[in-house]
Amino acid sequence: MTVLAVEGLRKSFGGVLAVDGVSFAVEPGEMLALIGPNGAGKTTCFNMVGGQLRPDAGSVRLAGRDIGGVSPRRICRLGVGRTFQVTATFASMTARENVQVAAVAHRRGTWRPWRSAADLERPAAEALLDQVGLAAQAERAAGVLAYGDLKRLELAMALAAEPRLLLMDEPTAGMAAGERVALMRLVRGIATGRGLAVLFTEHDMDVVFGVSDRIAVLARGALIASGAPEAIRADPQVRAIYLGDGRTGGERPASGGRDC
Amino acid sequence: MLTRRGLFGTAAAGLAAPAIVRAEGNGPIRIGEVNSYTAAPAFTVPYRNGWQVAVDEINASGGVAGRKIEVLSRDDAGQPQTATQLAGELLNDAKVDLLAGGFLSNVGLAMSDFAARSNKLYVAGEPLTDALVWERGNPTCFRLRPSTYMQVAMMLPAAATLKATRWATVAPNYEYGQSAVKWFKTLLKARRPEVEFVADQLPALGKIDAGATVQALAGAKPDGIFNVLFGPDLTNFVRQGNTRGLFEGRDVVSVLTGEPEYLLPLGDETPEGWLVTGYPVGQVPAARVFEAAYQDRFKQAPRMGSVVGYTLLHSIAAGIARAGSTDTGKLITAFEGLPFDSPFGPAIYRAVDHQGTFGTFVGRTALKGSEGTMTDWQYVDGKDAQPSDAEVRALRR
Amino acid sequence: MGFLLVHALTGLAGASSLFLVASGLTVIFGVTRIVNFAHGSLTMLGAYVGWTVLTRLPRDPAWFALGVAGTAAALAALGALLEMGLLRRLYRSPELFQLLATFGVVLIVQDAALATWGPDDLTISRPPWLRAYVRIADERFPVYDLVLIAIGPAVLACLWLLFNRTRWGRLVRAATWDREMVGALGVDQRVLFTSVFALGAGLAGLAGALGLPAGSANLGIDLSVITEAFVVVVIGGLGSITGAYLASLLIGLLQAFGVVLIPKATLVLVFVVMAAVLVLRPNGLLGRGGAPTALAGTATPVRPPTRGMLLGWGLLLLAALAAPLVAGPYALSILTEAAVAVLFAASLHFVMGPGGMASFGHAAWFGIGAYAAGLSAQGLGVPMPGALLLAPLAAGVAAVLFGAFVVRLSGVYLAMLTLAFAQIVWAAAFQWVSVTGGDNGILGIWPPAWASGPAVVYLLALTLCAGGAAVLQRVLYSPFGYALRASRDSPLRAEAIGLDTRRIRLAAFAVAGAAAGLAGGVFTFVKGSVFPGFVSIPHSMDALVMVLLGGVQTMAGPVVGALAYTGLYDGLLRATAYWRLVLGAAIVLLVLAFPEGIAGAVQRRLRRA
């Protein structure tokens, strides 16, 4: 069954149409990359799926259920995990505690003011940290972790909720080139292993073409192409945007494309 | 009356305090005194000077019953809970024989309650609230100064002769202000049923918006104004009132305004002809000796607070001398009906409600050079400004 | 009509006076982020210095203006000294810590002013031109009030030009948004901050001196102006000078008409207005959303207590339990009050540290608990255990009702909304005489015979208060406690993992309110009485000082802070007439020596060792 189905999504800000009738779908175990130049509407799309923005028109269906305009908290409850462009973690806790909090929240165990939290979901948290390669950092405060490690921590926190859909906004921004590929290979493996659907935006074309099953290309708020990596690579319209006359923003598809 | 303070006491200081060993009957008689020295210094600093003069006089003349007097004084920071905390320290650690002091009404009430519970005598100096000797009167509590009721009642014979029939009132927004207004209305209505009250202003204590208050009073077109403001609020009120002409052609009755601590800051703006209670410094023949001694020592004329502090200590000494003991029961018996002297003349502590008959002066404000003063004053004895004993007994339950 | 006009003009004059104080406060906050509690003290010093200067000058308008300007300059110089000598050393401390330092300054200035100028209210004699009036609509209106009405907008215009048309102003505005960038431009940021603080202090001096013709220099000015100045700054939007002017107009006019329409509302009017504004506009009238206003402590890692620490707490508790064996009744009474202080501080710390919601009105819950206990015991004859149960219940319920509005805000706005609610509760306690007894309070609420000895009272208070504090501690290490800290550290992430941050913050608010209410209930039976002072701003400040002194970011902080502050306070109150001076100096020294609180410093040393 299709995990996420977006139909005719539309959003404008003060008369400027940011997203105009975008449709796409993500299947279980599939990784869909949403790419496009700056200002193409990627993050706006993302935030409508994640609940941070309410769509003006169109539908967002999660496993058949309309979640357009539902709060981020409810969306999380419905099985959507996400990472942010700028990492958001709990700086006053260790890496392990960060994941524990997420896991406890997922198991509806938050409203227990009397039980000690120290051992709640601890094995699960440790397993997740191990999975993302942070086992050695488990007892360090999130506030002192390196940026790349914070990205991994966010991934572990998102996975703690056992989502069916994972939203990753610029998951490798700010990371060294080698790290990027490693992180996304890890995600690839988890997606395949768990049947997790992954929707992500990314500037690094090596990453995009290396791990995604399908790619959707946005330009000026509209979807201009969608398909398997090979097809996208060959698409003349996409080539025009990325390699063409530069009217559309001058982003290079080369590896190490800049982050913003 | 709003000051910063903490609520609580220390562990270490109390634990470390050495036990006080004292031979009963030989050492000095200890009086534990608590007052709002930092919260209301304009009144309490002269007050402290006053009781210091009295203590020196008493000890120079051989003390009381052969024992010297010692006053242990504490600052309550304007907080009743701090006052009782310190009263506890004075009783339990410093082993004082009785308690005295108080400026704010709520401090006085808390001290009275605490003293009653500890079965110690408490002699209140300044707190004006009627409740101290009436609704919440305790057998162990005596009060020196005329209460709010008495202050108003003392002015009433003169106030009732004023022509004004449309009255407006202005008072600080707390119990003292509200009670004073209540008594003025009740007592004046009783004598002059035709008067009406057309406006009540209740500015927050210490935060008067004087221009607006004056304007609001003027807007009600009264021909008489009853004022309870004092201190900085009064200064602001008078300045705005003078400029805006509020007091012109109107009768003004004003509580406590004749007391030097509140009259002096008015300076050359002192309105003339207000009917006030107060203390005409330098004009009272009976007070000459005290005033000279005070002037000699502190290089300034005494204030009302000075007289209260001075008289409070002398009245306590008189009471202990009469009791011949510091036993609380004997002290109470001695204080009931106790005659004592004050710079204003002789007075007693009434047996019926433990209220002192130490009176005050009622007169008119006047400008002498660039300073405010009182004229046409007369001393009103506290015994003449009381409800009937039956009424008082009913109020004391 | 004429009546309305004169009232409006009176309101405008009041607005100008308010604005003069508030403008300096908002300038200082906007740039340095210092919540300058000493701003009222600077205004008071302005009045006293102004009196000293003006009484020695000829009394014509030119000399008057010169004297006022000189006073402002003197206060600016004093402000510069204060910034360089004290506040500059605290910019790296957690937010709000500077507030503690300025609180120390308030205490010092109080005693210094009393010692320098004496206890009497000091007035300048008004020459005829200061007494002059004009006739407006048949009413006499003071010329000086017209001057004040003009001075407000004039100062506003000068400040606007200063900040928008000078290089200095542009640098200052840049520094407001990005301190590092200004540093990178090669500008000495310290000089910039010092000059801003001096400007703010100068404005305070101006306000103090200009207030003299209408009143006096007296020792109550500091507290009487500071709260309303904060209200104006917050209503206007922190750091917004134009906003401060608009807010001054709003408050000034409302006051002027308020005293006519509802004279009894003088105690609460401004706070009701502030609460209404904040509920509708969480960043004030002209405040910019997203401006850095967070007061939450930096997210220092919090570790569960080690075995050694638990052992330490256990030993402390044992010692406390054994105290009645050695301590006399007075020592026990102060230990009792210390126990209450610990729970009061711990409850504030609960919302302020882990919850990230600094409260300037925490005494509200303490007071509601105290009144609930007192009224139920005395009015309804509820026995003590029942009254002690009602205290946290009532406070908790009230905290939920108020908290629903509070938790939507953040930073200083949140803190000031709690203050507004506390003032509303205070005014009710103060003015509803038939129920609360007004400022005379409720007396004679003593424990029953079985619990009346000092030792029993102490053990009871210790059990309830230490127990309450332990419960709060336990909750902090529960899943709920972690979720609370998560909501503080990153609301975005917290919501994204499915946490309802607002509900969590509200629940924390209720728990803290209930705990403070319990402290208040216990205190009622300890003192046998309840007074409106329990709900007052100074009492809220006590809690704030205790928490900050101990350290916001350590769980031991409130305990250490409560014991240190109450110990200092009680010891000094008995030891010296100048206790405020010494206490203030002690706070300033502690702040300089332990810029992260006493417990914070100790913990850091231990961890390093």
Give an overview in words:
The complex is a heterotrimer of chains A (260), B (397) and C (609). Chain A has 9 helices and 10 strands. Chain A is of the alpha/beta class. Chain A has 2 domains: 177 residues, P-loop containing nucleotide triphosphate hydrolases (Rossmann fold), CATH 3.40.50.300; 69 residues, no CATH class. In chain A, helix 3 crosses helix 4 and helix 4 packs across helix 5. Chain A is globular, with a radius of gyration of 18 Å. The relative contact order of chain A is 0.18. Chain B is an alpha/beta fold and 397 residues long. Chain C has 609 residues and is mainly α. In chain C, the strands form 2 sheets. A two-stranded antiparallel ribbon of chain C has the order 1-2. Chain C is globular, with a radius of gyration of 25 Å. The N and C termini of chain C lie far apart (75 Å). About 1% of the residues of chain C have low confidence. The chains are: A alpha/beta (260), B alpha/beta (397), C mainly alpha (609). Chains in contact: A-C, B-C.
Layout of secondary structure:
The complex is a heterotrimer of chains A (260), B (397) and C (609).
Chain A: E1 4-13, E2 16-26, E3 31-35, H1 42-50, E4 57-62, E5 65-66, H2 72-77, E6 80-83, H3 95-106, H4 122-131, H5 147-160, E7 165-169, H6 177-194, E8 197-201, H7 205-211, E9 214-219, E10 222-227, H8 229-234, H9 236-243
Helix pairs in contact in A: 3-4, 3-5, 4-5, 6-7
Chain B: H1 12-16, E1 29-35, H2 41-60, E2 69-75, H3 80-92, E3 98-101, H4 105-118, E4 122-124, E5 141-143, H5 148-160, E6 166-170, H6 175-191, E7 196-201, H7 210-219, E8 224-227, H8 231-244, E9 251-258, H9 260-263, E10 275-278, H10 288-298, H11 304-323, H12 328-335, E11 339-340, E12 347-348, E13 360-368, E14 371-380, H13 389-395
Parallel strand pairs in B: 1-2, 1-3, 3-4, 4-5, 6-7, 6-8, 8-9, 9-10
Antiparallel strand pairs in B: 10-13, 11-12, 13-14
Helix pairs in contact in B: 2-11, 3-4, 5-6, 7-8, 11-12
Chain C: H1 2-32, H2 39-54, H3 61-85, H4 97-117, H5 128-131, E1 133-136, E2 139-142, H6 143-165, H7 167-177, H8 179-184, H9 189-210, H10 221-236, H11 241-261, H12 269-280, H13 307-326, H14 329-352, H15 363-379, H16 384-406, H17 411-431, H18 433-436, E3 442-443, H19 454-476, H20 479-489, H21 491-496, H22 501-527, E4 529-530, H23 537-550, H24 557-575, H25 579-593, H26 598-608
Helix pairs in contact in C: 1-6, 1-9, 1-10, 1-11, 2-3, 2-4, 2-9, 2-10, 3-9, 4-25, 6-7, 7-9, 10-11, 10-12, 12-17, 13-19, 14-19, 14-22, 14-23, 14-24, 15-16, 15-17, 15-22, 16-17, 16-22, 19-22, 20-22, 23-24, 24-25
